[in-house]
Inverse folding.
């Protein structure tokens, strides 16, 4: 079965057996998500999540499925649910996910944090190699990185490589959910509604 092949492949990459969650969203859509809590794999202090069902199964060797993963320095139900929502958004879009594609979520994809979307990227290393399924095709894997709205807007106005170059120059740690907006990208100006809410709070205090 595909899920068994994925489990074995992920286990080979991170060096430990995962927990399997069958996640269901509010619309009743389901997807399988593997989880490795911090300290249970060779990734050390990182929590690792990986999908099983982010794209439809392939039908021949010239086609490929895509699965998603993310490694972050904070775990818990909110991260699991955020990753699930992103994975289901990708699957329900009806298109096969590709490198440098942005996946938007709710206003805040992770409660309490300012990230508003994910970017799917091909890792430059061999951390998660392609999974060959023989006559059933193959599976490629994309790293999902949470991004700030300013980073998404910067990418909209420039090239993806320009954003990646800023990340490289500032040595951005994609796993750090406490990271700041990198130097070189301007913070977004406050909207009128944000200003009005702040003003109202000040008047009440």
């Amino acid at each position: 079965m595909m899920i068994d092949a994925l489990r074995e492949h992920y286990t080979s990459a991170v060096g430990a057996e995962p927990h399997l969650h069958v996640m269901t969203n509010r619309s009743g859509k389901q997807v399988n998500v593997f989880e490795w809590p911090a300290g249970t794999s060779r990734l050390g202090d990182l929590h690792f999540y990986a999908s099983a069902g982010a794209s439809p199964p392939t039908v021949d060797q010239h086609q490929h499925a895509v699965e998603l993963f993310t490694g972050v320095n904070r775990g818990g139900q909110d991260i699991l649910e955020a990753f699930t929502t992103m994975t289901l958004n990708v699957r329900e879009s009806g298109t096969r996910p590709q490198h440098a594609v942005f996946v938007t979520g709710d206003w805040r994809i992770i409660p309490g944090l300012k990230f508003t979307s994910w970017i799917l990227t091909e890792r430059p290393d061999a951390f998660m190699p392609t999974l060959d399924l023989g006559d059933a095709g193959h599976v490629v894997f994309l790293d999902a990185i949470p991004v700030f709205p300013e980073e998404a807007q910067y990418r909209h106005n420039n090239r993806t490589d320009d954003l990646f170059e800023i990340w490289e120059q500032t040595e951005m740690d994609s796993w750090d959910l406490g990271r700041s907006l990198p130097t070189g990208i301007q913070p977004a100006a406050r909207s009128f509604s944000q200003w009005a809410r702040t003003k109202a709070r000040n008047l009440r205090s």
Summary: The CA atoms of residues 61 and 137 lie 4 Å apart. Helices lie at 2-14, 77-92, 149-157, 160-169, 192-204. The first strand starts at residue 19 and ends at 24. The chain has one domain: 2-204.
